[in-house]
Every structure is written in C-alpha cells, then in structure tokens.
Amino acid sequence: MKILTILIMLSAFTFLGCVPRENARGGDTAETDVQTPDQAGTAEASNYAEGSWITDYSQALASAANLNRHVLINFTGSDWCSWCFKLRDEVFTQPAFIDYAKANFVLLTVDFPRRTKLPASQQKANQALAESFGVQGFPTIVLVDSQGKEITRTGYQYGGAENYVKHLKELLGEN
Question: How far apart are the first and last CA of the chain?
C-alpha cells in the first residue's frame, strides 16, 4: 500500500510539475508598472554581459533592443522546484545551450525562491512579471521581443541541451 501511495504521489508531481505558492498576502498584490525599453537607460543595456543571466526586466529589454535579440525569461523556483533544477542542470549550464543563447538571447531570471530571501523590490517586480505573463507553474520559459511582446512559451523538455536548442529554434521558426 505504501508503494502504491508513493507511485501515485510521484505520478501527480510529474504530471503537475512545480506550481507556485499562493501569494503570502493572500493574493492581494499591488500593480507594478513594467517599464518599456524606451524607459530603460542605454547604460543598462551596455552593462549586459552576453550569455549571463540578469534579473532586471527593463535592462533585459533595453539590452535586447540594443543587441537586436529576443529575451528568454526563465520563471523559476530556484531553490525548491525539481523541474527547475533539471532544466538548469541539463540545459542552462551546458555548452550547447550557452553558445546558442550567447549569440541569440538576452537571458532573464525571474525567481521565486522559498529558502532564499530576495529584496522586497525584486519580489515585487518578479510577482508583477509573473502576473503580467500569466505564469502558473515552474519552470515557465517565455520568449519575448525587445518590446516585451510574447512570442512563445515552453518549459522543461527531455533530451538535454542540444535537444532544447533544437526546440527553441523550432519555436522561433529557425528550422
């Protein structure tokens, strides 16, 4: 009976993935303005190191406009979500993804950790982005243009970094 219960729980977790916690304030969130690229300073864009993950949405949009690239937004629960761990370890840290991303994307992390405390301003900005994009589970990967318009979205994919790059290219119509 114990084994059956464990199998059911594992199946449910696999099927549902990682879902976000309810807002600690009971769902009552203040609206936060999301800046457009023309509101972001060009100095922010010039500070972006290609292939690095940043946490500032306006900097990501400004950098994307400056570099003529899309933004890959990783909505993650970096210290608790097992599918986020798999995506990070199997894809985001691998040379095939790093090389492709460095040449094609500005990388943005929007994190919802449980054990790590983010600054209140970062928590508020992350919550506003998640609400803006209708994110309901983790990991969620959203590709946007330099104006912040959603192009497509995806999540974890089996097969490692090479397969993930192929998947991203297909989503963007590059194949």
Answer: 48
Task: Give one DSSP letter per residue of 14-51, joined into a string.
Answer: HHH-B-PPPPTTTT-----PPPPGGGS-HHHHHT--TT
Q: Which residues, 6 or more positions from 65, have their beta carbon under 8 angstroms from its beta carbon?
A: 37, 45, 146, 147
- Report the distance separating Cα 80 and Cα 31, nearest Å: 26
- The mean pLDDT value for 24-53 works out to 53
Task: Flag whether pLDDT at 113 surpasses 50.
Answer: yes
From residue 175, alpha-carbon distances to 73, 108, 126 in Å are 21, 24, 32
What radius of gyration do the chain's Cα atoms show? Answer: 17
Sequential DSSP letters for 56-124: -HHHHHHHHHHHT-EEEEEEE-TTT-HHHHHHIIIIITSHHHHHHHHHHEEEEEEE--SSSPPPHHHHH
**Cis peptide bond upstream of 139, omega within 30:** yes
Contacts of residue 134, Cβ cutoff 8 Å, sequence gap at least 6: none
Q: Residue 18 — pLDDT band, cuts 50, 70, 90?
A: low
